[in-house]
Amino acid sequence: MSGYCVFQAYNGQAAVELCAELHAIELLVLNTEGTGMDTPALVRSVRKTNPGLSVLHIGTAPVPGMPSDVVHLGESFTAEQLLETVGALVPGHSVL
Fold it and tell me: What is the dihedral angle through the alpha carbons of 5, 9, 14, 20, rounded to the nearest 10 degrees?
């Protein structure tokens, strides 16, 4: 509804594969639950095929070992906060 095209992966390995196949991905949004793999390792793996990819982690707390440029958003957020954060991570995208 805000002009973003969103793809969903059912686990961490699927996210790695999706990011490898879709080279136009501008942002990886993930949480710590249900990835099936170490979240910092997931980010590093995705960035092998997408160096510099912006990453937004949503969770109860920042994850130790996460690359320092990964933005964390606490689970209790509003739609406005999410859109503001995503807009900052995906520059040049106009929100409808």
Answer: 10
